[in-house]
Amino acid sequence: MKATLEVINKMQADGVIGKYAIGGAVGATFYLEPAATVDVDIFAILPVAASAILVSLAPIYEYLRARGCAEKEEHIVIGGWPVQFLPPSNDLERDAVENAVRTTIGDTPAWIMQPEYLVAIALRTGRIKDYTRIVQFLERGSVDRSRLLALLEKHDLLLKWGLFEQRYLEGHHG
Amino acid sequence: MGKQEMRKRLTDLSFTEKVKLVERLRDRSLALAASGVEMAFDYPGDDGDRTLAWFRERLRSLGTCLSTGHPEAALALVYSGIDVFGWLAAAPGVDFGTGETYKNWCNKYLINRIQSVEGLVLTGDDLWAARCAFLHTSTPISQLSSNGGAHELWYQYQSKAGVNFLLNTSLPPLGLDIERLSLAFREGGIAFIQDLNSDQHARAVADSRAQHFLRWAAPVATQTRPNVVE
Hints:
The complex is a heterodimer of chains A (174) and B (230).
Chain A: H1 2-13, E1 20-22, H2 24-29, E2 40-44, H3 58-65, E3 70-72, E4 75-78, E5 81-86, H4 91-98, E6 101-105, E7 108-112, H5 115-125, H6 128-139, H7 145-154, H8 158-169
Parallel strand pairs in A: 2-5
Antiparallel strand pairs in A: 1-2, 3-4, 4-5, 6-7
Helix pairs in contact in A: 4-5, 5-6, 5-7
Chain B: H1 3-11, H2 15-34, E1 37-42, H3 50-67, H4 71-89, H5 99-110, H6 124-137, H7 143-146, E2 153-157, E3 160-162, E4 174-177, H8 178-197, H9 200-210, E5 218-223
Parallel strand pairs in B: 2-4
Antiparallel strand pairs in B: 1-5, 2-3
């Protein structure tokens, strides 16, 4: 993955992408125990003209194809890892990228989403594996609850959080 | 090293070390995929519709427990079975089994089929309190019975009695025969399924919920494609 991130950092330096943050399972691994995954989710802000209506991933793919990277379904393989580039599709994802924290893999810099954002995005995505990850975050005490709740309120996710809590975090007692 | 400690140690690794582990996990998954061996589940199919198949299996398990001298295991099957039926019977939009769904099912299908050993009528609250107490703590003591909202239930099974030696309740305890309770559960379950069969709407709701029941299948390795690395 070090090689993958070296390419992504170079893309950023070359202006193909703006700020980025690793999300998904690899992002969660920064805070939790390692989990099996076969791809890397990169949320990246794309430099687009103010007049542009649609965001295009074409510049990313052209840049990477020119460097020998192959496409594989919705991924492009960089340094042996299938990578999915995800332009932020809402304010939550945009904030998550803007507030990402810097870390390193070996000596290669990388940007990771903060845990509260990973939980909020997982809640919004709402698959079983996302809910499982949220439970792991809570069990490990890896999120600041008050910060998480503020984030959920800001992004209109409190109702969904309530349903999640009811279903996954509360028992039935007589 | 315990599982929790292992998880903590893994969590505390540096990101670089974690990524190395993730890469090893990925390599193993890819190697398995490249071998052409895939896991499939051999599921023999349902014994009737899902609700009926589940009920038959529950009764078979219950019969095994009762005939081999395991009254507490039988009790767990009955109490959790009522939970399941209560959820299946709940109105559309009720996503989970609750105290209300449990008591509603008891009131409709069970309490007219069972009495206490003393010959007294049991209530939905008595059975809900007993269920929570038993399933959570393997005792007769629940919050509800402790504050006087329900009778504490003691149990008898064949020649033995399960009693709470440290009684401290405001309502007198009642006795419950586990074999009679099991029979009442069987009869109540049959009546419930008959009701479902005569109410297409309720049947559809129950069936859609029953699709989420666990299906017990045997994992089998299958060679699905040639062993070629592309």
